[in-house]
Amino acid sequence: MTGKPYTFDILLDEGTLSNYDNHLVRKLSDLKGYFNDREAYQSMLGVEEAVLYDVYELHRPELAGELLHGISIIHPGKVGSEYFMTKGHFHTVIETSEVYHCLKGEGVMIMETPEGEWAVEPLSSGKVLYVPPRWAHRSVNTGADEDLVMFFAYPGNAGHDYGSIERQGFRQLVTEIDGKLELVKNPRWLRPEER
Amino acid sequence: MTGKPYTFDILLDEGTLSNYDNHLVRKLSDLKGYFNDREAYQSMLGVEEAVLYDVYELHRPELAGELLHGISIIHPGKVGSEYFMTKGHFHTVIETSEVYHCLKGEGVMIMETPEGEWAVEPLSSGKVLYVPPRWAHRSVNTGADEDLVMFFAYPGNAGHDYGSIERQGFRQLVTEIDGKLELVKNPRWLRPEER
Predict the structure, then answer these.
(1) Burial degree of B101 (CB within 10 A; 0-12, 13-18, 19+)
(2) Is the predicted ipTM greater than 0.90, yes or no?
(3) How far is A138 from chain B (nearest CA, A)?
């Protein structure tokens, strides 16, 4: 069950791994309802089926002592004024953390707790980000034309809980206004006591 | 208890982190008994107190859902024909894994299980190494004059068990013979049934 140790290369120029057994591709149509500007979303979908992000990873047993690991690549682009981003999620086992090492690009991680606390941290090459237990997290590529590439690791038993994020998103939208990154209050977001 | 998310930079040129709360320094005298050539060890100790490796990390609660993370820097050098290396250890909670991302330098990870199974994997910039649960691990710098720098992450509850490795070492010594890396059987190593 434990298996043997192994190595693989992060191929940063090609944006992939030398070895993986899971490749997740998230397209614009997979994020229906996630972007705030519904009109911009629909008209973009009519023109092209953009790939928003890729994840390459290696399967491990879904046990607490294991670590799931791989890279996520968020491509550059916007839907209306909102930058391309991942769906974002809580861990199903909420008392589990995640660590990211940013290898390329520019972005932010937007995070919040079930109690409504929120945080935004910058991402750029060489930066490590620690997402403590209980914090939902979403990666956002705020670069003009470069991929945001991050190595990630999290406990094997963590799981993904998309529920509340899928319903109402994060408290802040990450947008570009007049060529600048701006956090905008998400009109769909409800406080825990209002849900 | 969970704390806030945070970021820090890996300063690869300086060989440190922009922020850390634990800095472990392992000197030659801390590894008494670890190198096979006792004579070379003693005579080297008489000349200089070399630093073999540094670890920079951030404390986290010692809980299963947390991830301890930081960088380890193994400096270049040899004691006799044996390359500078870390002490090496099992995790106290043996069913926990560790993931490494090599950022700089050349080396190997030497690993073994309590049952006597062993493995060696190469380390170089851009490589990820997964150490599954149950595998003791030791980093070895096999480069001529460059540090071996690795980012690491492992479960917060893992702990360090130096016991059996301190007593008899790993099954294989990582040595340089005639300018080439060579694995040599460790004469002190005993099979599980002989211990």
Answers:
(1) buried
(2) yes
(3) 13
